[in-house]
Every structure is written in structure tokens, then in C-alpha cells.
Amino acid sequence: MAFLFRLRANQDGNEDDEDDEDEEEALLEDADDSSSSESDHMHDEAEASTQSHVTETHPKGIYDVTLPARHLYLGDLDEDSSGGQRTVHHDNDTPLLPLLYLRDTIVFPGETLPMHVYNLHLISLLRDAQTGCKPVAICSDLRNFEEDPEQALRRPNKEELTVLGTTVDIVAFREQDQVEGFHHGPVFIVKFLGRQRFRLLECYRKLNGMMEAKVKILPEEMLSPRPLHLFTCPENISASANQSLALLRSCENEMQAMSSERLQNLQKNIALAQNVLPLCQVPLWSFEWIDFHRLREKVKKEQQFRTFLGKENSAKLPNDVTSLSYWLSRRIPAETDAKLELLLINCPTRRILRALQILQSYTDLCCQACGRVIAKKDAIFSMSVEGPLALYVNPGGYVHDTLTVMDATHLRNYGRPSTEHSWFPGYAWTIVNCRCGDHKGWLFEATRRGLKPHKFYGLRRPSLHFTQADKNT
Prior knowledge:
Shape: globular
Strand order of the largest sheet: 12-13-17-16-15-14
Order of helices and strands: HHEEEHEEEEHHHHHEHHHEEEEEEEEEE
Largest sheet: 6 strands, antiparallel
Oligomer: single chain
Strand content: 25-35%
Distance between the termini: 46 Å
């Protein structure tokens, strides 16, 4: 699926490493000075198109962090008109779904995935999925195109895809004739929203070259026995089984608001708890490590990256354990293997605990190619309400899992600043490469004086290696 792997800019002609580090630093300083002067020239160019977005809600120059999450660079999209009548499969169902695959991209339930689709057969497939309110399966492509670029010209085999993936629904889309400067045929611009995890069972190739997959919908396994409030008892409540059950029985108002199916499941759990828990005393400490409110506070503390949101506008954490586990998993900066590990875990509580462990374990962000330190963990900050890590797409159709940091080192600017298709309205982007020549991401600079932050970096997550903290120190 070659259209998924077109790069936004041609990176041929990367500079070779300098033998002398002093000369290299001088070159970097010259590049910074050149970038600053070019930035002054582009202020007037982009101010008219972005000023209304940037200044209406934040007249003091503080950036409106809701803008990146809206993916304004995609243009006006037609919102989903299904009225919420989307197909939702039950746990352990094995549906046959249309299959898409993306390189180095892991999508979690609740995550937004923007795409530009150019393949005519795939456009037809997505059009049918949108009309029929059907989900699409998304997997990650494991092939290494640097070693063998010709692999991008063929469809992958099942063994070349991740065994885990996520179903996605089309929530907004637009069809147009072409994207100026990139493609002369029709294009389907779409926003997906992640729904359910699945395990890939079989892959099938249709006559038109498109792929379908038989998948197994993975369940969300709550800790058992699972009374509704058993794991969230206040500290002043004794941990005896009888008092725990009495607390659970007292929640009549919440039980009345439940659906009949969920109420039946709860009643089964209560019956199980009544048979099992009276046989032993339940120590309070055994529940504290999985208490939802305690987990929620840990998540709130650990993911507090620097942000321009302000305390009163900080991101709201979900109020249920499953949504919280996905909310955290898609926000934490981690390598692809770690992301897949989180997607594999069926228990939301275990998923949260593992995500927190991963978040606490790394210190530096290094170049995947040469090992140079690109940024420190403390440099990570949220430029969007979606968090420091989010998915964006360029007009060439390449999806980038992008991490925002305030400062970065060992990078060279490549090309001139541009405001075209900027993922962050009000900022112009410049390609940045590591000293070894590997593409690391983009430098974003404000196009209007006084806009905060003045500049920041968007780094490609798959191009980074996250070093682990030394347990002996």
C-alpha cells in the first residue's frame, strides 16, 4: 500500500557527519540564525489565515491547545450522520472486516486517526464502510522499508503485520478531486476513531488487491469477583466481607440508572461475592493497589507534563477504569513494542499499572539510528488537549505519531519554514534531522510575535529510543 508511505518531503541529500564537533556546532548555530531570519519573513504570510484561530479565545498570546485536536489542516469534513448507529461487536466475536495497515503506528480505542487515502479501491472500500456504518480494522506494518524499499509496492502477509490491532469508525470525511501539488487523482480525507481491540486471525486478499481480515474482538476482563464498589471502599470502611457487601447493596440509585444487561451482570457478581467473601476477611491493603480512585490520582500525577493549559483547564481524566486505561496508554511516550504490550493486556487495571511503570522507567529520548540524546524526559510537554503524543497526517498520506518537546539537541534544520498544512495553526514547520541524517521530526515556530510558546519540536515517536533508568542508581 504505497500510498500510505509517501513522505511529506524528499530527504535525499542529507548532510554527512562532520569530523570536527566544533565545526558542527558552528553549522548548527548558522542554521538557527538562518531559521530565525526566515521566520521573520513568514510572519506576514501566515498571520491572516491563522490569527482568528489563535487569538479569538486567547487574546494574551497563550496558544489555544484545542486547535491541534481538531485537525483543522484537513479542511472542512462532513461529520458522521449515522446517529450513533455504529456496529459494535461483542467480546470474542470473529467478524470479517476490511483491513488497513500503517507503519509504526499503534491505535488505541478512543484515539483519533486522520488519513489521506488515494487508492481508488480503498476509497471505494471506505465509502462502503461509511455508508454501512461498519468498522474498519487497523494493524501496524512491521516491514523494514529502509532495508528493502521495494516491499512498499506489495501487500504484506499476515506474518508481517502485528497480531493485535484496533477497529475504527469513520467519524468525519470528505472526498475531493485532488490535493494540489501531491496527487492528481481523487482523495478521501477521513478521521477515524478507535473503538475495540482485536487479535488478527486470518488475512484475505480480494481480487482488487484490497485486504480483509478475520479478527477476534478482545474482551475487557475486570478483576473478579467484581462488585461495583468493592474496589473503591473509603479508607474508614472496614475491609470485612460483610461490610463490603453492605456498602454495595446500599448503592440503589446507581443501580437504577444501569441498563438491564449490566444490572444482571452486577447481580451475578454480587451473588458470587456473597458466596466467596464471607469465607475470609479481606485486608484493606490488598484492595488499595487496585482502588480506582487511587489509580486515577497516580495517573494524574505521573502524566502531568508541562503544558500551557493552566490548572483550571487541565485535561479531564475519564471516570471509569477502562476508558482511563486507554486514555493513559495512548498518551504516554513509549516505543512500539511497549505500546503493543499495553494493547495486549485485557485487564484495564493491569493496563494502567503497566503504563505507569513504563512512564516512570525511561529518562532520555535518543535517536533510534545513532543513539545520540535528542531530548530529556523533562522537555516533554502538551501542546494539545490530546496530550504530548498524537497522530497527524501529511498531504502525502503518511501518518506521523508525533511527540511534542520544548527543547531538543543534535538536530539540523532542513529546508525553509512553511505554514502549509501545519498541524499546529499559528506555527510554521521546518524539517529537522539528527546529525546522523535520520529524519527526527519538525521544528515549529510561531508566525505571530508574542504567541507562546515561541517554538517547540514535534518528534516522530518511532524514530526515538527511550532509555531506561538505571535501577541501581
